[in-house]
Write a structure and sequence with these properties.
This protein has 505 residues and is α/β, with parallel strands linked by helices. The protein has 15 helices and 20 strands. Strand 1, helix 1 and strand 2 form a beta-alpha-beta unit. About 4% of the residues have low confidence.
Length: 505
C-alpha cells in the first residue's frame, strides 16, 4: 500500500487519485503520522505532498523522520525540499517564484523517466528550492530557473520532484508516477472497482456491525450507490430515507420513488413545507446551506429514533469535504459549507458512516457499475444536496422555485437532445436576483434573468466552461424565454473553476 502524507497541499488528494487510477491502493495520512502506524498498515511506499510551509521552519513540523529511512520515498515540491534538508542538503528561498507550466528537462537515462520526452511540460508552484544536493544524491532533472528540479538517491530508494506530477498540467505526470510505482517500487496494479467495493463494504461492516443504519437517499449516484450497498450488507437493518425538501427538480421525487421502492427499504418523507418555512427570507448562501443541513439531520434523527437506528450513512465525497474543511488537519481554506459536511449541527445524535468520504465522483460511478446501478443514475449530473436553493440567488419562495424548475427542465431536455449531456460534467440554470427590461408582444417587460452554466471536469475540483454550439445555446435561450413565465433574458456563464466555483452558491 502507498501512504500519501499531507503537509497542507490543495493537491494532496489528487496525488492519491492519480495513484488509484494506476490501480494501486493508497491512503492519506496527516503529517503527524508515526512510523509505527505506517509499518502496521502494510505501507511500502510513502509520497510526501507539497504544502504552504517553508523549510527554514522545518523544526516546527510534527513529522516522524524515521519514515524517510525505511520506505520508498517520493517527495513532491515541499516534500522534496524537506527530504533534501533531512539528508543533509540545502534549501534556499528562491529569487523568483516559479509558477505554472514550465519546460522541464529530465535525465531520460533514469528509470523514472522511461518513455518521457527530452523536453516536457510540468506544473511548478514554489518559492523555495534545493540549492545543494545531499551526499549520495544526484540531479535527474532541471528547468530554466531551477537547476535541481528532480533528484534521487544513489541507491534508487528516494526520489524528489520540484514539480507536481499529479496535476493534469504536467503532461507526462501519470507516466512518471507509473514508472515510479511499477518499475522502481515493484507494485502491482490490482486496485479496481471490485477492490473499492470490498473496501466500502468492509468499512460498513466494521462501523455498523449488527446495528441499524439510515441512509439519506437523494437519487444521485453517490447516495443511490451507498443505499444499495447498505441494503446488500445490512439487509433489513438499513433504511433508506428519501426526504423531499421541496427543492428538487421537476418530477424528480416521483422518479426516485419509482426506481428505489423495489431495491431498498425505502421511507419517503414529504417535508417541502418545513424547508420552505425555515428558508423564508434567507438570502445568504451559507445560512441556506446550514438551515438545510440542520433540517435534514433533525428529520433523520427523528426517523432513526423511531426505527432504533444509531447510524446515519451519507454519500459524502472528497470535494465536499475539502471545500468545507481540511480533512487531514492541513491549512486548506473553506470555500463553502456543504450541507452534509460543514452544515452538520455541533450536537449530532447519530454516528456518521461516510465510506465514500475520500473518493471522487468517477470512482463512485465505477462502484455503481460494479453493483449494477442503472445508467441514467450513474450518468446523472451532480446535483447539490441543498437542491435548487443554491441555484436561486437570494431568497426563496414557491414562485421563484417554479420558474427555476421549468428553466432547468428545458436545459436538461435540450442537452440530452443535442447529445451533449454525457460530454459535460454539469449543465444547469441559475435564477439571478435581478430583473431586466425586455420587449415581448410589443410591450415592455421587466422580468427575471436566468444564467446558464455548463462545465467540463473530471472530479469537480477544477472545471472549465464549455463552448456550447451557438445553435444549442439559441434553442435553450428561446425556449426558456418563450415557455417560462416571468423570464425575459438568458445569459451564459463563461467562468472556469477557479476562480469561480461550479455552483453559484
Amino acid at each position: 500500500m502507498v501512504a500519501v502524507i499531507d503537509f497542507g497541499s490543495q493537491y494532496t488528494q489528487l496525488i492519491a487519485r492519480r495513484i488509484r487510477e494506476l490501480k494501486i491502493f493508497c491512503k492519506i495520512f496527516p503529517s503527524s503520522v508515526s512510523f509505527e502506524t505506517l509499518k502496521d498498515s502494510n505501507i511500502s511506499v510513502v509520497v510526501l505532498s507539497g504544502g504552504p510551509g517553508h523549510i527554514p521552519h522545518l523544526d516546527n513540523i510534527d513529522f516522524d523522520r524515521r519514515i524517510l529511512e525505511h520506505f520508498y520515498i517520493l517527495g513532491i515540491c515541499y516534500g522534496m525540499q524537506m527530504t533534501a534538508k533531512y539528508f543533509g542538503g540545502e534549501v534556499v528561498p528562491g529569487d523568483k517564484r516559479e509558477y505554472g507550466e514550465t519546460v522541464f528537462y529530465p535525465d531520460i537515462s533514469d528509470r523514472i523517466f522511461k518513455g518521457i520526452s527530452e523536453e516536457t511540460i510540468v506544473w511548478m508552484s514554489h518559492w523555495d528550492s534545493v540549492s545543494k544536493l545531499p551526499e549520495n544524491f544526484k540531479v535527474i532533472g532541471r528547468t530554466k530557473n531551477t537547476k535541481i528540479a528532480a533528484m534521487r538517491s544513489d541507491d534508487g530508494r528516494v526520489y524528489g520532484f520540484q514539480f507536481h506530477p499529479e496535476v493534469v498540467h504536467t503532461r507526462e505526470g501519470t507516466n512518471v508516477l507509473k514508472n515510479f510505482l511499477y518499475d522502481i517500487c515493484n507494485l502491482k496494479p490490482v486496485w479496481d472497482s471490485g477492490s473499492m467495493l470490498k473496501m466500502v463494504e468492509q468499512e460498513i461492516r466494521e462501523r455498523v456491525g449488527d446495528g441499524k443504519v439510515i441512509c439519506g437517499l437523494s437519487g444521485g449516484v453517490d447516495s443511490a450507490t451507498l443505499s444499495i450497498i447498505l441494503h446488500n450488507v445490512c439487509g433489513k437493518n438499513a433504511i433508506s430515507v428519501f426526504v423531499n425538501n421541496g427543492l428538487l427538480r421537476k418530477g424528480e421525487a416521483e422518479k426516485i420513488i419509482e426506481v428505489f421502492k423495489e431495491r431498498v427499504n425505502l421511507r419517503y418523507i414529504d417535508a417541502g413545507d418545513l424547508f420552505l418555512k425555515r428558508l423564508k427570507g434567507v438570502a445568504d448562501p451559507e445560512k441556506k446551506r446550514k438551515i438545510i443541513g440542520n433540517t435534514f439531520i433533525r428529520i433523520f434523527e427523528k426517523e432513526a429514533k423511531a426505527s432504533g437506528a444509531k447510524f446515519l450513512a451519507q454519500g459524502t465525497l472528497y470535494p465536499d469535504v475539502i471545500e468545507s474543511m481540511s480533512p487531514f488537519g492541513g491549512p486548506s481554506a473553506r470555500i463553502k459549507t456543504h450541507h452534509n459536511v460543514g452544515g452538520l449541527p455541533e450536537k449530532l445524535h447519530l454516528l456518521l458512516v461516510e465510506p465514500f468520504r475520500f473518493l471522487f465522483k468517477d470512482e463512485v460511478r465505477s462502484i455503481a457499475r460494479e453493483i449494477g446501478l442503472q445508467d441514467f443514475i450513474i450518468n446523472r449530473h451532480p446535483f447539490p444536496g441543498p437542491g435548487l436553493a443554491v441555484r436561486i440567488i437570494g431568497s426563496i419562495d414557491e414562485a421563484r422555485l417554479n420558474i427555476l424548475r421549468e428553466a432547468d427542465s428545458i436545459v436538461m431536455e435540450e442537452m440530452k437532445k443535442s447529445g451533449l449531456y454525457l460530454d459535460v460534467w454539469q449543465a444547469f440554470a441559475v435564477l439571478l436576483p435581478v430583473k431586466s427590461v425586455g420587449v415581448m408582444g410589443d410591450k415592455r417587460t421587466y422580468e427575471n434573468v436566468i444564467a446558464l452554466r455548463v462545465v467540463k471536469s473530471t472530479d469537480g475540483m477544477t472545471a472549465d466552461w464549455v463552448k456550447l454550439p451557438y445553435d444549442v445555446l439559441g434553442i435553450i435561450s428561446n425556449r426558456i424565454v418563450n415557455e417560462v413565465k416571468g423570464v425575459n433574458r438568458v445569459v451564459y456563464d463563461i467562468t472556469s473553476k477557479p476562480p469561480a466555483t461550479i455552483e453559484w452558491e
